[in-house]
């Protein structure tokens, strides 16, 4: 039983996918930071780097975008190595590109010259003649029948290829394929004509909004309802569904309740939990998530769970539950890149294999491409999850102004000693100083007046100058000023 909830505010849209009452996926799109993946631009090459076989392309964004030779269709010939990038591109060259990965952190968007336009059942490849089938459609007989249908429908004179999307697995008619082909053909013609009369950098095509993409890509036969809490957006989505996704139209409903939609279904609480380091398990164990620039680490602990049999059984059950929770949390937090999981040590090989199998089963439903390795010699499981957009924490949060993102602040005593060292340094440098005025937070001043009062007296005797203390309410614990008088 799957339900899709769409919460709309003037500048933000949030989508929650709830399966059997449990939040499984969360998407957030803000007008000021709308995702770029799928957008098509006419860009201008600003720099070619032969040593990296890459180029920087100006597409009109805040940072120049990145194009690797592997993502340049013209660089590849069947059975041959890619041509050197310097023989294909030159500075100042105009180039039609599509965003394959959003800007993340300090990195610009990643581009490709292989443009693809997504419809309901098909993805159109205007620069390729290949007809493919989504890898998620596993039935070999169905794959061949869909491919044969598409081959017959495509005119021999038509340029361009198609990929049959996973949504076709639930039943795709010839008319649906024809409708998609007509729509995508018109869309490509518009893009191509606009590029012909434009100079870069220029946006040629912007992908659908989050709510529209949800209707196009995520509504399937198991979806019971799609609830929208905004009348204006509901009517817009109804019109969109009528034109492009008829199957989703009957599932659309307008939420009229007094309580906020996300609050009613407990989504707000789930979002708060997804921003915390610690995630409690029902059994009493817990997980600890630490996200760094290079990777994300997940530590599994038994916590208060003592089990009913022996210790190995307790560890096994905790690790099994952790495997299921980890898969869900990776989706909710949208964690990508390298992920290291430190399960509780298991001596039994059967238990290790069962936990690994459960982890692979749990992540198999993830829409984002993932790989899961075996246990390493140190008992760790290494995973990778394709990183296409910022994590939930990076979207909703910013580094703490108190600690600068470290997660810790220097103790008041440490700051006191820093102040004392600074006074000694300044005393030697400015010998004509008559007295020192210290401005610091309340906790630091209290420490200097109480527990470190004797050290302060010794300092004043050493520098032979008085030291005056003043509380600055706006200062964090680590901030202080030493003023010379």
TrEMBL record:
Which residue ranges does the record assign to the S1 motif domain? 38-120
One annotated GO molecular function is: endonuclease activity
GO biological process: one example: tRNA processing
What Gene Ontology terms describe where this protein resides (cellular component)? cytoplasm
Q: Which UniProt keywords apply?
A: Cytoplasm, Endonuclease, Hydrolase, Magnesium, Metal-binding, Nuclease, RNA-binding, rRNA processing, rRNA-binding, tRNA processing, tRNA-binding
Q: Where is it predominantly found?
A: cytoplasm
Pfam families for this protein = RNase_E_G (PF10150), RNase_E_G_Thio (PF20833)
| Protein name according to UniProt | Ribonuclease G
Metal-binding among keywords = yes
PROSITE patterns linked to this entry = S1 (PS50126)
Family affiliation: Belongs to the RNase E/G family. RNase G subfamily.
The protein's required cofactors: Mg(2+)
To which species is this protein native? Sutterella wadsworthensis 2_1_59BFAA
Q: Where in the cell is it found?
A: Cytoplasm
Q: Which domain of life is it from?
A: Bacteria
